[in-house]
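Example protein as discussed:

>
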Amino acid sequence: MPELTTEYNPLDPATLDDPYRVYAELRAAGTPLWSERLDSWVLTSYDDCKRVLLDHERFAADWRRAGESVPEPALDVHTVDPPEHTAIYGVLADALRDMTSPALAARVRAHVSDRLDALPPGPVNLITAFTEPLARWFIPEAVGLPQFDLDEIRPVAEAITRAMDSGLVPETREPGVAAQRKLAALIDGWVAGMSAGEPVRDLVDRADAAGVPHQLTMNSLRTLVVNGFTAVPASLGNALNALARLETPPKALFDSTETLERAPHEFFRFEAPIQGTTRLAVADTEFSGVKVRRGQGMLMLFAAANRDPAQFSDPDRLDFRRKANHHLSFGYGAHACTGSMLAHLLLREVLTVLAERGIEIRPTGPAVHKRLATVRTLAELPAEVIR
């Protein structure tokens, strides 16, 4: 069994600062590598990660198919497989396509401008002053939920986020499941108070009509709320961190509608907000030259795949005119994250405002990442906004 020759600890401070050196060393092995620490095969090539994502017969997102016990609150659109997955995914995807409208984009631009204007002069932490508040306004605004009561929602969402690392930090698992249950119940209460025809109520009614179990719908809506505390603020912070370190101002970089459409995907590829996810083998099989046993994990490191030079030319450089940018930051295939549409719209409109108003972001100190393995997100981004 080929084992890791490079020590890979996702929570090591040096790895948190810069995981890409480690990813390159792992990828150079040219084959999946077994990690005792992670109890999984570690996949770093684009081709291997994509093949597992597309192979629902051999590799399960629903771990019950590989003999694992999964608590009911953890079952959602991302953790069930076809055919159970098909109906809820279709309802969510259709609803989110309707939500990502020109009217929403206009509201976002106005709100982004107001938030930028409200920033004090001089250095600020853009994470706490801009990206996190923006993301937590945006998700309920886009989806049609009440604006978050942060005293109530923040600790719940943070417990769910910490539990994403439960393979490394087992004590986070049970609090995470309890938080999942609590948040789904809160959303159920919100929906019960809505009138027919409101977007979320309509989504739930369509899911009910399609035969989706009600609790699966509530759990799946929960993932959209949690995005306001995970992938969405992470993608914003990561993008602004990278942008601040470029010499060319946004007005020159994003000089066309086409470039503004492509730029968010290039930021997502360059610094994936979700570093990876795991599937379980449902039977003994062979994959890329290794023997995989039933129940073994296949950890797909999206962030490593997104820097694979076999797939992306000059992968360690931002190229906002990159074509055919089929990154894996939000998954691929049937389980691709439906929330990526919202993340793309929000980042596109932030970049639009920066470009149209000639606003620049200049770093004033080193960025600091939160001590999380699955979600790559910043705690601090010291910077000055030059209007």
In short: The longest helix spans residues 173-192. Residues 10 and 373 are 5 Å apart (CA to CA). The mean pLDDT is 95. The chain is about 50% helix and 10% strand.
